[in-house]
Structures are given as C-alpha cells and as structure tokens.
Design a protein that fits this description.
Layout (H helix, E strand, L loop, with lengths): L1 H13 L7 H13 L11 E3 L11 E7 L4 E8 L6 E5 L11 H7 L4 E6 L15 H11 L8 E6 L1 H12 L4 E7 L7 H9 L12 H21 L13 H7 L4 H11 L3 H5 L5 E6 L7 H10 L3 E6 L6 H4 L1 H12 L20 E4 L5 E12 L2 E16 L2 E5 L2 E2 L4 E6 L2 E5 L2 E2 L2 E5 L2 E5 L2 E2 L5 E3 L3 E10 L3 E9 L2 E2 L1
Parallel strand pairs: 4-5, 4-6, 6-7, 7-8, 8-9, 10-11, 11-12, 12-13, 12-14, 12-15, 13-16, 14-17, 15-18, 16-19, 17-20, 18-21, 19-22, 20-22
Antiparallel strand pairs: 1-2, 2-3, 3-5, 21-24, 22-23
Helix pairs in contact: 1-2, 3-13, 4-5, 6-7
Length: 480
C-alpha cells in the first residue's frame, strides 16, 4: 500500500499539468488510495448496559458500526418508543451525550430521546478522519432510520448546533424542525477570534464617562486590528486541508482540535439563507464562547426563527439553567416560530438627518434620511432605517438595521464598523475602512466599492440572490 502511495505522489508532482496545484492533486490521490472500503450490508444496533457507561439504568444504549467514519459509535435512547422523536446533538468536549443529562429526564416524559456520542467524543473512538460538521451531518442521516422513517426534531448545542444546521440543509426530508442552543462556529474565523480575545466595550454612556469610553473603544479597536493582522499569516492547517486522510491521521489523538478546526473551516451561509425548516434559537446572555451576535444574525436570516435569551446563562445553559431550557424546548417544539421583526419602513413626510460630531456612546433607533458620524466612538445603531450612513474617523456598531438608499447606502471612511443581521440596498463605499459584517443581506451582486486599502471581515452574508460572502479580505481600487 505504501509503495502505491509513493508512486501516486510521484505521478502528481511530476505531471506538468499539476505543477501549480500539486498539493491539491496529492491530497486527492491520498484520499482515493486510503479511503476506507465499505459494503452495503446494514449494521445492527448492538445493545449494551447503560449503567456500564454511568448512565441511568432505564436508558437503552447501543453500539453501531457506521460507514461515514468507518468506526463504531455509542448511542443512547430513552422515553416511550412510540413517542415523537427528538435527536440531541452535543458540542465539543469529552462529556459527549452526557451534556444532555440535566434535561433528559424532563424530555423523556414527552419524547423518545435519541442521543449520540459523535465519533471522537466520550465513548465513541476517534477515527482517522476529518471531524467536520458535514461528515457529522451525513452520519446523522445514516443513524436516523434506525429509529424512525418519519421526519424528526433535532436539537444541537454549540458545535452540535452547526452540525444540526448542516443536517437540515443536506437532508431536509429527515427533519420537521430544529432547535439551536448557543451554536458555535458560525462566524468567520477572524470575527470569532476577535470576540474570544477581546471583551465587548459597553456603549452606555451612563456606565462609563465619555473620555474613558473613547479611550476604551480605541484600545479595543487597536487589539482587534492586531488580531486581524495575525490572522492574515499563513494558515497552518492549509497543508492538512489538501487531504482529509492526512488531516484525520495527524489529528486522530486530538479530536477536540480536529473538530474545532474543521468547524472553523466551514461556511454555513447556504445552510442559513437556504434553510426551509422552522428554527428555534436559545442563547445564554453571558456566553463567552459563542457570542450572542451569532444568535442575532441567525434569527435575522433564518426564514422561520425565534430567538430566546436566558440573560444569566453562559455557554451551557442545560447545566446552569436546566429547568429554563427544558421548559423552553418543550414549549418551542409544540409551537410555531415567530419571525424576528425587521425594522419597519414607514412613509414619513419629512425624514430627519442626524449628525454626530466628536461624541461617544450615542444610541440611535428609528427612521432617518441621512446619518453622518464624524469622529464618534461607541455609537450603536439598533433597529435603524436610513437612506444613507456616512462615517468618518468613527468606531460604530450596527444591528438589525436597514439602509434603503438605492445608489449609495453606506460611505465608510477611516472608520471601523461592525454590523450584524442587517440589510443594505445600495452600494457600500470603503475608504481606509475596516468592516466586520455578519449575517448581512446586500441587495447588489457587487455591493462594495473600495478606493483606498480597506479590510473586510465577512461572515455568513449574502450579496444579490445567491452570492455568499464568508471571508477575510484586504482590497483597494476595486469593486467586490
């Protein structure tokens, strides 16, 4: 086998057509040569004793050989076999399905609850494979018929939320509704790392004097700028990414790292904007792992969604607030989601202009003609509808807003703008700007006009009808 692999590598390197992309070809050949062989014989669930795995004695537990990763996985099942089915998907960490223990007792009164230790976690061994949300979604599709031939409800926490989104996108016939709890890995890598490395600065001027607020925002902005520069260095996973076999072999002993890197690499734009299933979203207000911003962008863009926040909860609300989570989940799955209200566009006889000059900590809501911000910091636009926004030497945040100017909607000059879950109808002019857009809908197919060099961190956003934006760019003198 090894001699065959070396032969394939030599062919790939020596081929004239492969000279520019030989690493890609080597990776593809490695995956072909080393891909596990599978047969069409369906494996059977093998019963095991729940107490052996320190789980409640009345739970039904199984081993199952699966073809996606070519390994054996551990599953648990509780509740009446005839009850509606709910499948729970855990996040990173070696607790695996045990993360659901605090709420399982309440759920099993109403549902047949299916739980899985995903490959690489808890009882399921770590395979020589890339532990990506897409592969996990394919695994769930394999597992589901063992328990039901009808659509089921699926709930995902943290990484499991991302897996659930991908599962619903790839196999919509398997699912009738989904719920996401503090879903992680949705933001583009740079945006996520900035959140993790720097705390958000309050924009309430009552909580911080203007002079200190201006200094604090500037300090945070400086930190974010350094992070952005660091993240433009070569990605150490790029070589492993040429071959999933190489990726899995190298990281087999580190499943948390394997899954985390795989999660950060995926783009969930299509899974969000093309989602057709009802989605219920729960977030911990004090989540330091997956920012609430992610929940806001999901609620703003998923076709039928509703966001609920447990103010005092962190990243694992099942552990800290089990009663709140189980009550929310049972109520949600028996109701229809209420779409998040978008800013209303009313017919106003005379829309006012707003000018901010050398100020800090302002919050704007409502409808405007033109908003002009000059040397303003810590400004929040929340639920704003405006024809045009002009920012000069300013640091601002925008959420759930709509800019309706058909020609130019935004002009961002020497400014930093973070925008979440908003809509832009016209062009965005960038001049020495740094923008961080997440879950933003841009009506134009080529919405950005960049003059002087500018930095663009774009997470799960969409331009036009079907162009997805999920990248980290530095551009000048161009349209994008």
């Amino acid at each position: 086998m090894m001699s065959r692999i070396y032969f394939l590598i030599i062919i790939a390197i020596c081929s004239p057509a492969a000279s520019a992309n030989w690493l890609d070809k080597v990776g593809a050949l490695l995956d072909t040569a080393l891909a596990p062989t599978t047969n069409n014989v369906k494996s059977a669930l093998v019963a095991t004793t729940a107490t052996t795995h320190k789980l409640p004695a009345h739970w039904r537990t199984y081993w199952l050989d699966e073809p996606e990763f070519g390994t054996r996985i551990f599953l648990a099942d509780t509740g009446k076999p005839s009850a509606p089915i709910i499948m729970l998907i855990h996040g990173l960490g070696q607790n695996g399905l045990r993360d659901w223990l605090p709420i399982a007792a309440e759920l099993e009164k109403h549902y047949r609850v299916i739980m899985i230790d995903l490959p690489g976690f808890a009882n399921s061994p770590s395979p020589k494979a890339k532990l990506s949300p897409t592969h996990y979604a394919d695994l769930l599709h394999f597992v589901k018929p063992y328990f039901s031939n009808k659509p089921i409800s699926v709930v995902g926490h943290s990484m499991g939320g991302a897996v659930t989104l991908r599962y619903a996108q790839r196999y919509p016939a398997d699912i009738n509704q989904i719920a996401l709890i503090d879903a992680a890995g949705i933001l583009q890598r740079t945006a996520f790392v900035k959140h993790s490395a720097t705390d958000r600065i309050p924009v309430n001027p009552d909580a911080m004097p203007n002079a200190l607020l201006t200094y604090a925002v500037g300090l945070q902005d400086f930190s974010n700028n350094l992070i952005e520069k660091m993240l433009r260095l070569p990605d150490p996973t790029s070589l492993l990414g040429k071959s999933e076999i190489a990726w899995g072999t190298t990281l087999q002993s580190y499943p948390n790292i394997n899954a985390a890197l795989s999660l950060a690499e995926e783009d969930f734009s299509s899974a969000i904007f093309e989602q057709t299933k009802p989605v219920f979203i729960l977030w911990g207000g004090k989540d330091l792992v997956a920012p609430l911003r992610t929940g806001q962008l999901l609620a703003a863009n998923l076709a039928a969604s509703e966001l609920t926040i447990i103010a005092e909860a962190g990243h694992v609300p099942m552990a800290s607030h089990p009663k709140d989570v189980s009550t929310w989940l049972l109520a949600s799955l028996n109701s229809k989601p209420k779409p998040l209200a978008q800013p209303a566009i009313e017919t106003v006889a005379t829309k006012q202009n707003y000018n901010c000059d050398h100020s800090s900590g302002e919050t704007l809501r409502g409808q405007y003609a033109r908003i002009t911000l000059t040397e303003c910091t810590g400004v929040l636009l929340d639920g704003v509808v405006a024809d045009e926004l002009i920012t000069i030497d300013s640091v601002i945040e925008i959420q759930n807003s709509h800019f309706i100017g058909k020609q130019t909607s935004l002009t961002i000059k020497k400014s930093v703008v973070m925008m979440t879950g908003s809509t832009i109808d016209g062009l965005v002019n960038l001049d020495q700007a740094r923008i961080d857009f997440a879950g933003v809908r841009l009506a134009k197919e080529t919405p950005f006009k960049v003059s002087t060099r500018s930095r663009m961190v774009l997470s799960v956003s969409r331009a036009g009808d079907n162009r997805y934006l999920h990248n980290d760019l530095q551009l000048e003198n161009t349209a994008y």
